[in-house]
Write a sequence for this structure.
């Protein structure tokens, strides 16, 4: 079978699936991605990628609600222009697996009419009942409602451009219109639970020069970007009480000052500056270790030395980091929001609290840091949950191969 993976930031979420399929006999794997987007991405050495030029974004004369869709059309057009060159040289995939959220899959079936197309569908925006308007600190207005409705134009055309698809979690699938859900399987990208595992001897030296080991009193927080969508402001507001009560606690915060989701802060500011400034006169800043983004192995060591790990999110896409923290045997203190509640049951494999309650978060963290032995079973169950439901080799990859089988001619 000849398979083409399509992702602007390839390999992205397809990293494990594409690499595993490339090792299968009788599989010929191709990939295409955005030349610029892939510059900072670790490639798959065994899988060369056809790169296309980054398309121009929509112009300022385009209506603000339509800019996302216009950019998606430009990307869809650029991809097929690039692929047509390879088609003339013999490229004719049997199956295309695409992340269509940026318009990538719009026109693939037009140039490869003999191929089936499977889409990875991460999120369908809701004007109410999910991320938009969830946080009272960032209330929605009518402009937000109209913008969100318009964003789904890309998703709807993508759904119609694919023969079927999958979502990483059941909650993410539930966000899509009901008549599309029956065409969407639930298959997570998968966790390598052999690599992402507890290590009682883990040690790490952070970029600030400090060295920390498993067994120390360490509170951890991880997010690709330090932003409200991942509850960074709630976490920061819990710290003064935690640090005052636990004088030996050190806090490791992994993530960049970029914004991945949600509104940008005012020009020249970061959310880290804003919320650190809010608590600066109530904490000892030397006990906070902001690492930025870390190499993957160092990031795993942070999870392995954690005595308590905090994960927060709006009702939105579930982060890989939460499942990797659980697989590492972390004690999870997490927000009671739908994507989290799909995985964590309060008191069974983690501790849950209402998102906008930093005092409750602080109280949970203080108890966990003071009495780590009392929470060992929650750590064990957290890892077992991931092994049983999200392990790549035994759960997710077999499910993915079964999905592919459904689309064989």
């Amino acid at each position: 079978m000849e398979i083409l993976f399509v992702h602007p930031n390839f390999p992205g979420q397809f990293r494990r699936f594409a690499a595993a399929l490339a090792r299968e006999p009788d599989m010929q794997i191709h990939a295409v991605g955005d030349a610029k987007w892939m510059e900072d991405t670790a490639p798959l050495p065994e899988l060369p990628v056809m790169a296309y030029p980054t398309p121009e974004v929509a112009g300022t004369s385009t209506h603000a609600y339509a800019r996302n869709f216009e950019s998606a059309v430009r990307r869809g057009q650029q991809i097929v222009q690039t692929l047509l060159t390879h088609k003339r040289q013999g490229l004719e995939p049997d199956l295309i697996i695409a992340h269509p959220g940026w318009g990538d899959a719009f026109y693939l079936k037009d140039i490869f009419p003999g191929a089936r197309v499977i889409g990875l569908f991460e999120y369908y925006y809701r004007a109410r009942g999910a991320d938009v308007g969830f946080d009272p600190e960032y209330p929605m207005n009518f402009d937000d409602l109209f913008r969100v409705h318009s964003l789904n134009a890309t998703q709807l055309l993508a759904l119609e451009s694919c023969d079927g698809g999958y979502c990483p979690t059941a909650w993410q699938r539930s966000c899509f219109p009901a008549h599309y859900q029956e065409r969407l399987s639930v298959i997570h990208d998968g966790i390598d639970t052999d690599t992402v595992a507890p290590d009682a001897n883990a040690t790490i030296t952070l970029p600030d020069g400090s060295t920390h080991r498993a067994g120390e009193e360490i509170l951890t927080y991880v997010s690709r970007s330090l932003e409200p969508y991942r509850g960074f402001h709630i976490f920061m507001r819990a710290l003064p009480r935690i640090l005052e009560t636990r004088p030996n606690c050190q806090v490791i915060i992994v993530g960049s000052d970029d914004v991945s989701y949600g509104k940008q802060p005012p020009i020249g500011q970061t959310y880290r500056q804003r919320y650190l400034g809010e608590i600066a006169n109530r904490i000892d800043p030397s006990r906070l270790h902001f690492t930025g983004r870390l190499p993957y192995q160092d990031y795993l060591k942070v999870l392995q030395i954690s005595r308590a790990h905090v994960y927060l999110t709006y009702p939105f896409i579930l982060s890989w980091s939460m499942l990797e923290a659980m697989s590492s045997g972390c004690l999870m203190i997490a927000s009671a929001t739908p994507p989290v509640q799909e995985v964590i049951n309060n008191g069974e494999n983690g501790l849950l609290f209402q998102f906008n309650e930093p005092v409750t978060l602080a109280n949970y963290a203080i108890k966990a840091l003071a009495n780590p032995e009392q929470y060992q079973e929650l750590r064990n169950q957290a890892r077992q949950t991931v092994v049983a439901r999200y392990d790549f080799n035994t759960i997710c990859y077999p499910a993915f191969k079964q999905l592919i089988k459904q689309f064989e001619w």
About this structure: The domain at 203-389 is CATH 3.40.50.2000 (Rossmann fold).
